[in-house]
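Structure in, sequence out. Go:
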């Protein structure tokens, strides 16, 4: 067996022999996305103002390797009920278009149709639904949960008891489920520390983390989609990694 390789001074990864022969891990992708013919009104790398489900209906089936979805969960506001909805720091959040669980399920079903086989969906999740369960949202799809990443925002949030400093990114993969030859970056930690210095949107997400996830499961020039783009942080992340972005938001800003 060849000498072990190291990601850093403290973490031993895999021998070169293991990686090249028997390991389920690889640093190359053997998945290729098909070319896409888009309607003229779906302009890549722009902030489209559009309904997300209508946007998804215009995408060809099984053409997209990676999608993101960051819903505005109506369930959180209903269940937690801090009493400050529409006031002070919660004013911007409550002004957003709310998504019912039935609507979120529609989004997941539509994303499932446009993802390529073994494609990935990164679903931003709140603590309430993570604990309560959300499996029914993707019943009847070819999506399976394959991982979970915790984003440490390094700033205090709300909370009756513990104060929220984290959000959660659920990683789903379309069948056939596999890592080797699909996921090519293996130093993404499952607890990711990244502070967003500016917050132009109440649901601002970390560009750095999203960029690494995009690089892990797509090739340069591939399309990345986000049908509820908010601040369009996914577009920024995709462009950083040489990918094309197609996405929209009801506000288009």
């Amino acid at each position: 067996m060849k000498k072990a390789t190291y990601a850093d001074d403290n973490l031993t990864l895999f021998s070169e022999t293991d990686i090249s022969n028997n390991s389920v891990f690889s640093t190359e992708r053997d998945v290729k996305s098909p070319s896409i013919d888009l309607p003229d009104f779906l302009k890549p790398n722009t902030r489209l103002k559009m309904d997300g489900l209508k946007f998804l209906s215009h995408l060809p089936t099984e053409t997209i390797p990676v999608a993101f979805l960051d819903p505005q969960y109506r369930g959180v506001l209903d269940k937690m009920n801090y009493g400050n909805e529409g006031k002070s720091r919660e004013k911007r959040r409550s002004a957003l278009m709310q998504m019912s669980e039935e609507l979120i399920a529609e989004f997941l079903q539509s994303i499932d149709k446009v993802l390529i086989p073994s494609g990935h969906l990164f679903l931003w999740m709140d603590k309430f639904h993570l604990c309560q369960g959300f499996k029914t949202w993707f019943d009847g799809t070819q999506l399976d949960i394959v991982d979970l990443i915790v984003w440490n925002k390094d700033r205090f949030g709300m909370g009756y008891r513990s104060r929220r400093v984290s959000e959660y990114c659920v990683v789903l993969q379309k069948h056939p489920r596999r890592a080797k030859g699909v996921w090519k970056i293996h130093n993404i930690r499952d607890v990711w520390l990244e502070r967003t210095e500016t917050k132009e949107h109440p649901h601002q997400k970390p560009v750095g983390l999203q960029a690494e996830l995009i690089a892990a499961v797509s090739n340069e020039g591939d399309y990345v989609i986000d049908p509820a783009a908010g601040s369009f942080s996914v577009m920024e992340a995709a462009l950083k990694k040489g990918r094309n972005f197609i996405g929209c938001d009801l506000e288009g800003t």
